[in-house]
Amino acid sequence: MFHVVQYQPLRLITRNSLSSMYLKLVFSRPVAFAQIWKSWFSSHSLIGNKNIVLMGPPGAGKTTVGRIVGQKLDCPVIDIDDDVLETTWNMSVSEKLQDVGNEQFLEEEGKALLKFSASGSVISLTGSNPMHAAGMQHVKKNGIVVYLDTPATVIMSRLKSMKVDRIVGQGPDTSLKDILQFRKQFYRRWYDIRVLCGGDVSAEVVAEKVLDAVKRYQNSELETYVSTRSGRSGRSTRKDSDKYFSDVVTEGLAPDGGLFVPERGLPKFTAEEWQSLIEATYAERAQVVLERCIHPADIPASKLGEIVGIAYGENFTCSKIAPVRHLAGNQFLLELFHGPTASFKDFALQMMPHIFAYCIPRSCNYLVLVATSGDTGSAVLDGFSRLHDTDKQRIAVMSFFPEDGVSPIQKSQMIGCQKENAWSIGVKSDFDFCQTAIKQIFTNSDYTGFLTVEYGTALAAANSINWARLLPQIVYHASAYLDLVHQDIIAFGSPVDVCIPTGNFGNILGALYAKIMGIPIRKCICASNENNVLTDFIRTGIYDLRGRKLVPTSSPAVDILKSSNLERYLHLIADGDGQLVTQLYNQLENQGHFQLQKDLLEKLQQDLVAGWCSEEDCLAAIHSVYSTTGYILDTHTAVAKVVADRLQDRTCPVIISSTAHYSKFAPAILRALRIAEIKQNPLSQLHLLSSYSPLPPVHWGLLETLKKNENENHQVCAADLSMLMSHIETLIQNHFL
């Protein structure tokens, strides 16, 4: 075993050695003694006998940053190149490379790493160390691996200034950019923590970020969640009452009926950190954002990367996942319909089932309940049906939808998405009844306790009341802004507005959260259809359901009067005052209305403006856009387009969320395009639309689902809570027993 003798690990300070230091320093230099003690204590408490292992491409600054981190912690610093490889080989790294060639060099480098050991140190790896699996496993056993994630353009610029034009593993026919991209897979495999390093960030700043990241890694107990209806302090003094990410994913709804939110708020990104993601793919951006929001104690970076890769892989029809398309003037479309079920719900529900399966305990079966106004149903059924077979045996999902409140194609799609662990139930009522019924079931402790004791089955939620549903929605709003920067439409820091068709307030809340995290969003424009309770609320501060009846429209996903996620936003602008939120929602439940105080309304209106669109104007917008551009908007996007035209002042770009593919609403689209004969069969409607060679094309996944499942049936239930509970019990008996 090779030990680096010139760098001794932190020695244990015993009572005798402390006494000796005390005798020498306490009287003559008390400040010096305090500084020594503070230095030792800070480094020892932060890393103990563990190493901080810095990893990244050549030119990422590992050596310089390592020295600064070592100085700040007053602990040994080891550079693998200088202190291990060259000492072992008795020659320079470049000489060794020239002597043995690329492939053998990696093997020799790995062997040297296997003979090396240290503790309580800061270690700077070479850029190629991560390509040797056995060597990295050895280093990782006693180390926290920190990935200095630096954009390839920055690395290439630095290497050029250092007159380096070739690195280990780069053949004569391989560009520097390609080899840097190739190496990323190895860096992603090994790191525990990622630190984003932009081009203009000093090594001193990066070192501070490394220390902050290590502190976060070591202190998972700080990232707790509270209910929107808990007191202002949020936390109980009882440690066992704290809720962590895994808990809130599993539980969904807080016991007091509120929604879970992070107690200390969302993480902030610097402008430089966001800019380092401009060249990144959608999946890379997603992982970076989610790593900041999910502590590695809940989901390690390697597992999270695996989940992101599954979620945003071949199941999306567009390689860009969420492309931004110019529509006209200053308007851009964020296309969120390229997932397998053709709506924005896929962004969360291709990911959330895998997060859920990882977080839940193995000792219990879970039935996931979801209420849907259309798109969520097929997305949740598809997402949970893609779990591994072993997970499908212990996780099932049941989707409740308004039997006569979704489009024919949406209904056919939900029925077609039923699998061995996924079922759809039509309810003879509206979405608000379905959503309220599920909340009542979750808060009925007698019923949920009975299911657990009798059947060993717990209930969970997959609506956007579940925190894991919201997080992926932050990503695509941030990604859209970065895409505009990448396309040179705007410079980073320039503001944009976003306009979002809004029903349950989850999608627009994702944009508001992206703004909090540092994306320069100026205004979020809330677009409603004729069910315009949110428009009235944002304009007046009065949320009033008295005398309102749900109006069925051609944009059913926003046919909602009770917007669940609004509660999270009110908790945010009320500075975490759960008592106020409880008062407001008790008043809404008991009296059918509430009113915001003036200061909260002013806060709200700094973020939000709102408008609504009639059915006539919605269909007219679809016709107008198709006539001028050849592009077909779905009905929800058309609602947002109409409202954006009315409210946005054209002084900056506006990104309109295109939340669903028009194929899902074929009858309304055919009416808007003024096609006289509309057949009742959903498959025939899609074939008719396809004959117009529309832009974008008819969604292939939707077409395939309808082809395969034309004759499938589903269960229908009366609008009665006890009947829904009976259906749940029957499903549990059939699937889990």
UniProtKB/TrEMBL annotation:
Query: Which GO cellular component terms, listed alphabetically, does the Swiss-Prot or TrEMBL entry include?
Result: cytoplasm
Q: Which Pfam families does this entry report, sorted A to Z?
A: SKI, Thr_synth_N
Q: Molecular function (GO) terms listed?
A: pyridoxal phosphate binding
Indicate where the modification N6-(pyridoxal phosphate)lysine is found in the sequence. K345
Pathway(s) where this gene product acts: Amino-acid biosynthesis
Query: Keywords for this entry?
Result: Amino-acid biosynthesis, Pyridoxal phosphate
Renumbered to this chain, the signal peptide range is none
The family database entries (InterPro entries) matched by this protein are listed as: P-loop_NTPase, Ser/Thr_deHydtase_PyrdxlP-BS, Shikimate/glucono_kinase, Shikimate_kinase/TSH1, Thr_synth_N, Thr_synth_N_sf, Thr_synthase-like, TrpB-like_PALP_sf
| Cofactor (UniProt) | pyridoxal 5'-phosphate
Question: Tell me, what is an example of a GO biological process annotation in this record?
Answer: amino acid biosynthetic process
Q: Which domain of life is it from?
A: Eukaryota
Q: Which residues form the Threonine synthase N-terminal domain?
A: 236-312
Fetch the CDD domains from UniProt: SK (cd00464), Thr-synth_2 (cd01560)
Keyword Amino-acid biosynthesis among record annotations: yes
Q: Which NCBIfam families does this chain map to?
A: thrC (TIGR00260)
The entry sums up its family as follows: Belongs to the threonine synthase family.
Q: What is this protein called?
A: THNS1 protein
Organism whose genome encodes this protein: Anseranas semipalmata
Lineage summary? Eukaryota, Metazoa, Chordata, Craniata, Vertebrata
Q: Which gene produces this protein?
A: Thnsl1
